[in-house]
Design brief:
455 residues, Serine Threonine Protein Phosphatase 5, Tetratricopeptide repeat, six-stranded mixed beta sheet, globular
Amino acid sequence: MVVRGRFLFPIMLVVNACVPASHPGEVSRASFETPITSLPPMKSFAAHLPSAPPRSNNDLSLDFIELSFRMESGKDLPVLTRFEGPITLRVTGAPPPTLAADLSRLIGRLRSEARIDIRTTNDDTANITVEAVSRARIRQILPQAACFVAPNVSSLAEYRKARRSSLTNWSLMKTRTKVSVFLPNDASPQELRDCLHEEVAQALGPLNDLYRLPDSVFNDDNVHTVLTGFDMMILRAYYDPALRSGMTRGQVVDALPGILARINPRGTSTASRFVTRTPREWNAAVQGALGPGRSDGQRQDAAYSAIKIAQTLGWEDHRRAFAHYAMGRALQSGDAEAAHKQYQLAEVFYARNAGTDLHRAYVATQLGAYAISKGDGAEALRLIGPHVETARDRENAALLSTLLLLRAEALELENRAAEARLVRLDSLGWARYGFGSDWAVRAKMREIASLNPLK
């Protein structure tokens, strides 16, 4: 059995680690627990503005091959597999109200940006089935998974029966005809959408994740939550007429220069970066630093290993920054000052690399929270200010609402109470999408308010 899924191991918002408050893994539970709310209406994002940093076609080719011919486990895939011909997608289970609009936007982007012939249907012969089930049912199968995708089945019940058979083994496939995506219908609207984007992308295309990609959902750091310009380019190449299911690695390598010259013409003259591969030891160290079931000491040891590996390999990119971010996370509950220094180092390395604006916005929540806890509203406003529009542009409502709530506390520290009230009100509509239930939204509000020494 080889399963592909989005696991509960993101770069999550962890402002709450600065003070005793709610656990980040709980903020989205019971997302639709009450039909009546005293909070402002849920907000949603307007048209997506895709962008992709300039990339050489040589680098794109290397990324494409490694994404498409290897599993996360390290197992090589013998041939390229994809759907051939028009693709249909249906939704089953008990989907929450927000799923329809998010799916419609995703299908529209796949058609317009990736040029994939995909449409929704109610037919039970659909190529892709998106089944909305409870988080508990997903965790009965994969305890650490938020959502996952599996081949050659049309329901979770069918997958349970076939999960240990060759039927659900991606590496034995020659082409794709039927794939199911399993999403948590009791998660926050944003978590549901994030899972939808990543798992539908995996159902359609690459099955691997690469830490070296700074601007992609095909990266286990889970920084990007909706498909990026890079991702759409990869999927467009995946469904180019010059490729087909059953092609070997060598055949795809031969076809890629022509494909990429057509879909990314500026990449023919862009200098290659030749970013090094990420050793599995670094992956394991980061997972040990941020994954579940570890003590603070174990997390710190793992984060230190990730930093040392990055230093030894001479990394100066976003992976070096992420190792420092992981160390900040590991230190934060016991040594806020040391954690702050690690977040500062993460910002230094992120700032040196293109395509890391969203990473920097996450770090800004930690640096801004620290400034607020010290009573320095002006510094917090300086740190938070540049990143609010980044969160909005990247359609990350949880991050956007967190930055706005931090801004509100900083404004209060600066005796700008009227402005603070307006900013806080603006944050709540985004928080309803990002965190879900009234309980979760109010917990986030209390958590961030508790940073303010005046309170």
